Structures are given as C-alpha cells and as structure tokens.
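Expect chain and fold; see below:
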Amino acid sequence: MNSESGAVPEADTETEDERSRDGVSMSRSRRAVVAGGGAAALTALAGCTGLLGTADDGETEEENAPEPPWTTEELSEVVGDDPDFTIYAAAGTRDAWTQLVEVVNDEFGTSLDPDLYVSDGGDVAQRVIQERQADRDQADIISQGTALYDQIHEEDMEAGDYYELGIDENFWFSEALPDEMTEPWYVSALNGGPSTCMAINADIFEERGLDYPDTWNDLLDEQYEGLETCFPSYVVPSRIGWIVRHHAEQLGMDDEEWLHEMMDHLDFKGVESHTRGAREVGQGNIPFMFYNFPWTVRQVIDDLPVEIHYPDDIQALMSSGHLAINSEAPNPWAARFLLSAAVEVPVQRRILEDVDLFAPSRLDVDYSDLDVDPYYEELLNADVSLVTFEDEGEFTAVGERVIANVIEDR
C-alpha cells in the first residue's frame, strides 16, 4: 500500500491544530453553510472534465453510476477493480487508515489501495488549498482538514468550495443515522462517543468519601467545596463552552455567572497541558481535573490510578472523526464508496477489533459480543449529547468569551 506522511500528532490537544480547530465562532445555520442543493451540486461535479474515470468495459463511471440515494453495494460496483484513490487525514496513523481500508476491502470484495498523507490538520488543509490553487487536486477523501472547516465556521468560505455536497442526502445512511451525524459535506464515521471527560484520582476520592459527580453542576455541592482541581494552561473553547452553557442553562444562570461561582467554589490549580493534568491527578498531586479528553487520560491509566469519568449527557462532537470528499476529487466514486462503507454495521464492528486507535462512530450498533478494551466499552456506552457542527461553533463562541472574561481575568 502506498503511503506518505508528515508528523502524526499525539493524542493530546496541545497543538496549533487543536487550538485553531476550537478557536472559532459561527452564526450561520447548518444548511445555510452550503450553496446549492446536494443533487444539483453532485450533477455539476460529475460533469467536470476528467473527474469520472472509465470502467473496465470502456464505459465511463458516470454511465455506470446508480441514482442516489446510493447503497454501498451499488458504489462498489461502480468502483469495480480500480484500486486508486488518495486519503488526506489529520487523525489516526498510516497503519490505522491502512487497516480501515483493508477491512472495507474484505467486507465488500474490493481492492482499494490508497495513497495516504497523514499529518496535522493545518498541514492537510494547506496541502489541499495549494493543490487547488495549482489546479492539481490529489485528495479524494479529506478527514480533519481543520483549517478548512475553521473557515466554514468563520464564514470565510462555503463548504462547497472544497467539499462535495449532498452527503446528507445522496447516501443510504441519510435515513439510517441520526441527523446530527451528517452534514451536507461530511459524515461522522470514526471516533464516536464522548469528546470530553473528567479525570479523577480514585484513591483520593475514596479516602475523602467523595461521590463521583453525575454532572458538572454536582460539583457545586458542599462536599466538593475547596476541592483541588486542575485546569490546563490552554483551555479548549469548544469544551469549556459546552460545559458552561449546558450547565448554566440547567440552573437558569448566565454563562459567566456560572463559571465565576464554580471557580470560587473549587480550588483551581494551573497545569501546563491536558497530558500533564492527567498525570498530576494519577500521581495524587491533585485529586481532580475539571475536564480532559478520553484519549489523553487513556495514555496514563495503565500506569497511574487515574480514572476517566463520563458525567451524564456528556458532549460528543460530530465533527470528530468525520469523512468528507474533495469537491475536485480525481476518484470521486472510490471516495464515495469508502465513505459509505465506513459507516456500515460490519465495518463499524470490525473497527473495534481490526483497526488501531480508531473507534466506531455509530452508537446504535450492538458491540456487546465483541472482546474489546474496557476503554472502548465505556466510551461507546456513555450517555452522550450529540453536538452538531453548528452547535459546536456556538459553544466555541461561549468558550472564547468565558476564557477571556472569567478564566484569564482571575
């Protein structure tokens, strides 16, 4: 399998890419982000010279193409034995993407053999933009090209400028998946479950007789008064924004009022990063971290007594682990096939057993018969609140405001 890679970021979020991805705001509605209808955009896209390839029998893929909504089986027939397509990704590793494609090939009898470019989201986006400017697009699938959807959030571009539209209409899964999992330009195919967690030192909580909080509002209870609580030096706006808005609304409070009260009630200590915070909790230096990321805490749970704790109704960002198609994809039918196949139940189940680092996105699938790591079992069984692309932008704006007016002001 062909591959090319830049530096693959660690699971922690202390990167310029993560800061860029979450430091955005958005006011437009989900549908207003895109220009034109999905089917019309697809027709125009399919008519572009050189975009559609030729089947083995000499007919163009357009002539062989089924009418939407497409099934994965129909798309596999269009792709046939043609193995060529390219993935640009800012999540996972080359091995993980290779394994995912191998699972798809095994399930559907195809022989896809992608070129891979795996780097951070800024590099992926820059490469896509530079290739577009040079009229030399190479990417078929784009995953986590964060600077691109930052621009969509900020209204600097339309999704259709770089992404194929109609993802939420032209595939079988438009009726099978929750609406939150699809946008006109992507489907949430990987890494489902909570995007946020608490980190708890189980030994200290037991010694002090502290309950595990069911929500962040529980932390305002008297038993937690003065509890040493760590906060990273860089606070991710989309995470803190959701925590603040979601829980302030439950108590009928203003966002900033809620966070002021929380910071007066707990004893906050600064740490340099989310990873450092998880270790401080695990080493017993601080009993509790206000928020972290499941995949970050997971790095230390084997060595230290730190627990990943998911409060009720925890946020699950649907932009995490999404798959999108380049609007000028050289091999669009291969891209559509992979995108469609990735959310099929057999592939989702096999991701848990045969693909490193990735988790499936679908929480409606029964994984109980699989022998999986307890980390994934807890992740996929958590009580979550699905957060759309639009809502993520709104929570990010809240986060930016409370960081500036409350956290940085203390």
About this structure: The longest strand covers residues 197-201. The chain has two domains: 4-191+320-377, 197-309. Residues 3-60 have pLDDT under 50 and may be disordered.
